[in-house]
Fold:
Amino acid sequence: MRSVACRLFTAYGERENETHAVIALIAKAFVRMDPYEIWGDGQQDRNFTYVGDIVDGMIRAAETVDDASSVNIGCAEHIKIIDVARRIFAEIGFTPQAIGFDTTKPVGVFSQAADLGRARELLGWEPKTSFRDGLYKTMEWYAATHQREEVSGILEKMLTAR
Structure:
């Protein structure tokens, strides 16, 4: 049976929900949370990969790899959670008076990194969308599809609903 195992690295983008870090951070800024809460100390980092790039990489992997081996589909850039929040503030035009770090909340691994060597070699692939551009598209979608008052009223539930 032809197959490939794609390892995805922190996909984000439109249609994601508030249990995902990027959407959670956008939602908190969208409702003007102040103090603005970040789970953990904000120093944990991820390789945020825009969903359109994930789809492109998975399609290319499915068309290229047939021996059930694995390939990483992600971005090589390390971005700290606190820096994601700051980029969101800059795009929205909102800066909270205080940022609180809740170290009692789950944060996952401290650092997650994708080695894209195999994806480049086998697939001729790497992500095309910069984090800034993908974040902007995601923020535009969020603002166009959500109402501030509604999100504000149920945000705590949205952040932990599974």
Summary: The chain has a mean pLDDT of 93. The chain has six helices and eight strands. The first strand starts at residue 5 and ends at 8.
